Structure formats: C-alpha cells, structure tokens
Records
---
Amino acid sequence: MFWIGTGWKMNHTAAETRAYVAELLGRLPPRPQDVSVFIVPPFTALAAAREAIGVAPLLLGAQNMHWAEAGAYTGEVSAEMLAKLNVRYVLVGHSERRAMFGETDEVVRLKLDAVLRHAMVPILCVGETLEQREAGAAESTVAAQLTAALADRGREALDSIVVAYEPVWAIGTGRTASADDAQAMAASIRGELELLGGEVSRTMLVQYGGSVTPDNAGELLACPDVDGLLVGGASLDADKFVAIASSGT
C-alpha cells in the first residue's frame, strides 16, 4: 500500500485550493485500491477542499491541531472540529512545529491521543537535524521520538498510526537525501517498531518526506521499507504532484 500526500504549509487560499482540486481530479490517472492520495491544505481551505472533493477518491488531511477538546486556546482548532469536516489524516509533530513552535515529545503524544480519540489517522512526523546527523545521532534521535509517542499503546492504536520520516537536514539546506538515506532510516524505524511487536513493524506504514520531486519519487517508492511520500514544495504545483502521485500506480 502506498499513501501519497501533499505538504502545503502556509500556502494556497480557499479559491486556489478549489482550482487545485479540480485540476488534480481531472488529471490523476486511475489508481489501484492500495494507493491513497491526499491533500493537506491550511485550516482556512479545509472546507473548500472538502466541498471540491465531493465523492471523489481524494482524501483530506490537516496540518496541525490542539490536544484539548475545547477551551480558551485562541487561534487553535480541536480534533473534533477537524473530524466534523471529514478530515481523515492529521500531521502530528512536524519538524517545523517542533523547531519553530516548541512542540515537545509530550505535546506530540497528547496530540496523537486526541487524533485517535476522534477516529482520524495521525501521521507521526519524526526526523533528525543536520547537527544530530553529523554527530552520529540520527537513528537514536528518531528512535527517541518514536518511543516517546508510541510506547505503552495498545495494538488497536498502533494499527491506526502512520509514521513519516522527514530528514530535517535535507529540508531547505541545499543538501539532498538519497533513496539509500530514506531506505536506511525507514529500515531503522521498522527496527524500533519491532520492540513494540513484530507484527506492528511489518504493518505500520512508513512514509518519506524530504525534497520529493517527480524525478526521485519512483526511486523512493521502490525502497522496500518506504510505503508512501509526504510531498512538500513540489506538491504546490498540481502538474508536479500529479507526476509524483502517478509514480505510485
């Protein structure tokens, strides 16, 4: 099974999202049942995206949310609010949330709990910085993030979580992660998941997100331990995203 999704960040208005979805639906080739494509607009475009998608086989994700059910959290949205919009996936622990907004492992775990309570699929983002990688701590950093988020969870919860590896050192730094880099870390992630149970390590989906382009998408998806892609800058262009999504068919 392959899951291929966008990472729009703070881009695309509601009107631009409607146009994007229309173009995407008109150009995506038929997909096997084991290939899911989803888009992750900003909050202001979620309703527009839901309306534009209609009954088409294109799924909807959200970039973030608060862990509380409701309350005095100005500027935040809850998991229930997203679920009412038929959001299917929620990014949790994205590297930019961790680095720019101070999200700790404890906050990430609380958000995972909230997403699961509302029957959505959390996409747990993990990854290491350039400094951590150069210090030889790449695998241990990712392992610690996984343990903090996934330890002591039951099998039902673990079966509902997706892991997305994003090499922070290859995002906006001019450095590029190779397919070998992606496969090596994906295999390491599965090794950590073995500690949670052998079956979990085989069934949990592991996505890769970091400088994905139409040129390298096929090679990345050919990695035995990579189950999908979380596409950043290239996904803002519908032409490029169609080409990338077509790599999974």
---
Amino acid sequence: MAPPPLIYLAALLVVVLCREFARLPIAAGRSTRLPGLVLVAAAVSTALWGRRTMMAAGTNIRPNLPAKAIVTSGPFRFSRNPLYCSLTLLYLGLSTLLNTWWGVVVLVPVLLVMHYGVVRREERYLERKFGEEYRRYRRSVRRYL
C-alpha cells in the first residue's frame, strides 16, 4: 500500500480537480473558513500528540517499519489509530476550507482503502507480533473513535 499520507494527498488532489468541474459548495461565501481551520488545528494537535507518544514509547512511527511496542497511552487510550484519524480530520478540514462537498464524496473510497488496505493489514501484523498483549489492547480500545 502507499503510505497513508500519500493516499490522503492523492484524494485531496482529486477533490481539487473535481471542484474545477463542479464546485458543489458546502455554504455561501467564507462561512466554511472557521470550521475548516478548527478541523485542521484538531488534526495537527492530535498528530503531534500521537507522534510524541509513539516516540516516547520507543516505537517506529512509520507504518512500513517494524513496531517495537504496543502504545496504549496518550491518544492511543481513545483510538488504536489516532494518527489515521488525524489524517482524516486534516483532509476534512482542508476540504471544508475548499468549501466543496467533493471532499465527502471522495472520502468514502479513501476510508475503504485505509480500512481494508492499511488498518486491517496492520492489525494482523500486530496480532502476529504481539499476540495476547495486542488482543487485550484491541478489546479495550476502539479502532477509530
């Protein structure tokens, strides 16, 4: 699979292209600016928190490198995938700033690719590598939100 940030970036480029052909505005004027900025700020904050937590736990942040530990603190107490959730928030925030419903339309296939092509594969890997420790964590913390 492509790295998750590239999946979201490619989707955002599709949104920009679609918007050129049919704007599909969410709202009139600039009324989407504040909600878009709030979503972007929440995304960046969550990503930084998750990154710091993973670094403190001594594990790799990049999904193509081996996991060294199951991280259960910080945002990982609430979601097993807070970094992917933050990518989704960032994508939605940028789509909102672009003031187009195309962001929601294109998000559907992105989420399917992320779920089946990235998250489920990572879960199988973590279960093989960490066994019962990961299964306990999986039972106690939601996959997304």
---
Amino acid sequence: MTKPMQVVGIGNALVDVIAEADDAFLDRMNVERGIMQLIDTDRAVELYAAMGPGREVSGGSAANTIAGLAALGARTAYVGKVKDDQLGAIFAHDLRAQGAGYATPPTPKAHAAETGRCLVLVSPDGERSMNTYLGVSEFLGPDDIDESQMARAEWIFLEGYRFDGPDSHAAFAKAIKACKAAGGKVAITLSDPFCVERHRDAFLAMIRADVDLLMANEHELKSLYLTDDLEAAIGRARAEVPVTACTVGARGAHLIAGATRAHAPAVAAQVVDATGAGDLFGAGLLWGVVTGRDWTDCLRMGNVAAAEVIGHLGARPEADLAALFAEAGLG
C-alpha cells in the first residue's frame, strides 16, 4: 500500500526578514559574512533596527525543502514550532498554501519566546549572512512528534540546525524509530559547518545508526570528518551512509551510493540571494528520489531547483519547478 506521505520534514519554523547589506554594514554590526549565527532577543532587536528595508518570507531550512517538494506535487507534511502570534500565522499560512500539511500546535501567546525569525543580510554578490533568533522553534521536543505520522512517511527529512535545541535530539530519535519500524527511510541535511562543529558526535552517531541519505555541501562534509580533503570526506561518507549527496558550489554536485558515483554540473544563474540554495537542492533531489529517477537526474533536479531560488530574494520557489525540469529535459 502506498504510504500517505512521501516526505515529512522536521526542523525549524522561522520567518526570514531579508534585506540588502554591504560589507561595511556587516563589519560595523559585527556580522560574520556567509554563515548562520544564533542570536538572542536583544541582538535581534538591535540588528532589525539597524538593517535596511526588509522583506518577510517564510523560511526555515527543512521547511523550505518541504515547500519546494509540495510545489512539485509531492505529498508532504512538516513539523516545527511557532507561537500563536503574527509571524507564526504567516509561517503556517505560507506552508499550507504551498500544499504541505502543517499541524504542529502553536505555542500559547503567554510563552516568553516568540516565533523564530532569521535576519538575512544579502551582500551585493548574493552571499547571505544569517542571524537567527530561534524563538519557540528551539523547544521542538518529543511531544511534538506524531508517531503515526512518521510511520506513514516514505521518508523523514531532518534539519541539522535543529541539533541546537535541547529536546530536539530526542524528537528526532522518536521520529526515526517510528519511521524505521514502518519501513520508512531517513534523510538529513548537515545545514552548516559550524553547526556540525557544535554537534559532531551526535551527527556521526545518528548518521552511522539510522541515516539512509546524507545531504551536505563540501564545507559541511569536510567539517564532519575533520579533513580539508573533500575526497577523503567522501570516502568516509561512502563507508558510513548508503547515499551521500554533496554540493560543491559552481562545480555542481556529487552523489555517492556504494560503488556508484554521479556528478551533475551546476545550472548557470544570476545570484541575487543565495538563501535557500541548499534547501531547494534538497527538494529537487528528494523529488527525484521519490519519483524513481536515476541518481544523475536526481542531482540535476536539485541543481535546477537551486538555480531557481538563488535568482530572487527569498528561499521559497517562485517559478514552476516542474516546468523548469521539463525545459531541462527532466520532465
């Protein structure tokens, strides 16, 4: 019997506030260029007051991946915490409007934390520097996991950023157990090299025990295996994970599955905002996986989706991804 859900994502539930900023602004505000930094409420207020006019777009890494899959027609759902506030309502509306299921109960208004937001500063070259206030998203825990939903999923997709939450490791473990017991599979994205550094042992333990598909960029994969040699990192991943997909920027993406290795070149695109490139790569890749495409096509779909999202502000697709796949001969 076909499972009701092809992919269920679990991760942060955030609203991105995106504004342009030059390097002088980043230096003045002590923002480290090109990475994600966790910030507290006071820092969020300080940065928001100083940054230029912003655009609010629902985000969250794994939520972006699920939104991309839903836009393609996949049967999807998402688990992530928001508060019963204005930004929480925006996040829930946007994800449901994309076609994804979203039923995580909002945290009550009385809670001290707010819906999480990511202040994204986009440099003139399209590089993005992310400053994330996790808010209530940080408190995702086992009680938020519906075991029956996980059991109905072909895949669960876990967001590495959520390793920063105190109860999220247990939430992931509960989801993995229910999914695997019902014959489902587990995919995870490493999210960020600094996140990997903070939680390397936990990542490795989960990857070795339960992960069927590992997604990373070259910096994250090298951080995971403590090496500056990408080929050495790929070799380690090959020995530990059934399938690893690794993006290498303008050089495209590699996929390693046992003795099989595939590569697909990057798709040419004008970079307006690199936010969400890895998230939409994941959406395209997973769409290829759940629709039974070969590994090279899966990579090509990932690259096409990533190229679409970096061509505009915001980390959710604006063009018809299925039409773009068809134009690329992937229909």
---
Amino acid sequence: MTALILQARFDSSRLPGKSLLPLGDRPLVFRVMEALSFIPTDAKILACPEDTVSAFAPLAEEAGFSLVPGPKKDVLTRYCMAIRQSGADRILRATGDNPFVFVDAAIAMNKEAAELGADYACYFGLPHGAGVESVASEALLRAEREAKDPAEREHVCPYLYNHPELFRLHRPLSPSCWQGPDISLTVDTADDYQRALLLFERLSSFSTKERNLGANVIAAYG
C-alpha cells in the first residue's frame, strides 16, 4: 500500500500564513493537494501541526485528503504517525509550499523506487519545488527510532540519505524533459509568491492535471 503524505504549516518566518495565500481563487495548500490528487496512491494524507487543524480540515476534506495532526517541530514523527494510521508500506513525501509539483515525474519516480526496492528515492536535476521523495515506510520508522539531530527530525528524510551504509538509496538524474535545476518553483518568500501568481496565470489555459505536467510548467516559466 502506498500513501502520499503532504506536510503543511502556517508559521513560515519568511512568508507567514503562506499556506492560505490565494493562488487563483483557492488557497495555496489546496492547489498543492489538487495537483497531488493526480498521483495514483491508496491514501492521501495532510500531516499538519496540531494547532492548524481547524484551518486545514475543511480544505483537506474538499481535496479528498485525510488529516493527521502531530508535533509541529518533529515532522518525522508526524510522518510516522500517518504511516501507522494508514498502514502504508511506501510513502510519497510532498511539501505544502510546492504548488507546481511535477505529477508525471512523481509517478515515474515512485514506480522506479518500488521496482528497485529503494528505501529512499528522488530525482536530481528537477526545478526546486517540482519533486517528491519516495520512501519505504520501514526505513522512515527506523529513522524515527534512531535520528537524534533536530534537523533530521524537522526535515524528515536526511537521516536516510546521510546514512547510505544503512539504507538503499536511488538518486538518479531526472530525464531531460523535466530538468531545470536553475529554476525555483517553491513558494518560500514574498518574491516567490509573486512569481507563483504569474506562473499560475500563464498556466491558466491548461486543465488542472496538465498544469502540473513538467514540460508544461517549464515552458510556461520561461
């Protein structure tokens, strides 16, 4: 069983409240869930801090996501709570500041990871904010037991790729059609948000799914 787990929060120091900023006529976090809904998985979960439930719950329900609240700073534990609740043996990790995630690249990466039995997998060479990570649940549960560095707990996956002697890693260069390492699609600052508004407008003629296909996003960005 595969679960897509999206992490989102309110209290970004560089762009407070960004999850609820409008992108088109819907909040940013909803646009992220809308894009991720096209990735075939058995469950889709929004893993949020406990103090954001009232704001995120209606958006998650509308997008077809289950809600799993957990610790604000220990995001690794939050993910593992979602794993235990869903019973997933593999997860896709996504973050709430990436409304232009490449759906086609995510599907391809997860297929490669599952076929190889990789504990951790992601593409190199994608635009920043375009990718997801595919992770074996047991590997992440082990990280929860063993990781002590606060950064490894806040950012979820570093314990895995910092210990290649413990985990099977798959980190290939992405196919050329999705490459754009000098492009940033994530929303982290006010300037990023203004760029996202412009890009979303440029993609407005596409269907919702086509708006998150890699080649279309790169072309619109240029």
